[in-house]
Design a protein that fits this description.
The chain is an alpha+beta fold. It is built from one helix and ten strands. The protein has one domain. The longest helix is centred in the middle third of the chain and has 56 residues. The chain is elongated.
Length: about 220
């Protein structure tokens, strides 16, 4: 019989036969670094976790741009909402005024509409706007909350205090930006005395007219 090998590997373990014929089991051989995946990687050293400085700068700049666009868009939406809400109130007031004129003409004749000169049109609404603060006696406009309606008893004007003045142009030259309106009777002075006399003058109707011209600016004109 041939000589027995000193060492043989069985199922991944090392068996050793010493001179006395005893079989000893030793530790399994370690796999090579390449088999364990610990060898050097192609392309140089491995990249550590996290972002580089350039990537962080790009991300921060992108977030800043998106934030600026969102703020600008939000402000524009608020201005548009204020403009639309103001126009809706004016539309409701003009409709209520037209119904009041028609009712007066049917019941009491055309001359009765002259009583509406300088009236508070808010009194004609079944439900007043939530931002209507009521009738005030010559108030300081700067003390009225922005975005509010009020009726000035002294001037007989309905006033809207603008919330976002950067998008509004016109109105009275003094004080905070605001739009003023007055109920006016359309008539023709037939007797030439300069006064409205329903018995002598010709009445043509009633309107809710702005006291001073005003307008809402667009983005091209510098509005936010």
């Amino acid at each position: 019989m041939g000589s027995r090998p000193d060492r043989e590997t069985v199922t991944g373990s090392r068996w050793t036969v010493d001179g006395s014929g005893l079989v000893r089991r030793g530790p399994a051989p370690h796999p090579s670094p390449r088999l364990r995946g610990e060898g050097p990687r192609k392309g140089g050293a491995a990249r550590s976790g996290g972002f580089s400085l350039l990537e962080l700068v790009v991300v921060v700049a992108l977030i800043a741009v998106l934030w600026f666009v969102a703020i600008d868009r939000m402000l524009r939406l608020r201005i548009d909402a204020e403009r639309v809400a103001m126009l809706q109130v004016l539309g409701g007031l003009r409709s209520a005024l037209g119904l009041e004129v028609a009712e007066r003409v049917v019941r009491r004749g055309l001359a009765s509409v002259t009583e509406l000169q300088g009236a508070n049109p808010m009194e004609l609404l079944a439900e007043r706007p939530h931002n209507y603060v009521g009738e005030l006696d010559g108030p300081d406009p700067s003390r009225v909350p922005p975005g509010s309606w009020y009726f000035d008893r002294r001037t007989r004007m309905l006033v809207y205090r603008v919330r976002y003045p950067e998008a509004f142009e016109g109105g009275p030259p003094e004080g905070p930006p605001r739009a003023r309106f007055r109920v006016e009777v359309l008539w023709r002075d037939r007797d030439g005395d300069g006064r409205l006399d329903p018995r002598a003058d010709s009445v043509g109707g009633v309107r809710l007219a702005p006291v001073e011209p005003y307008r809402w600016k667009t983005r091209r004109e510098g509005a936010p």
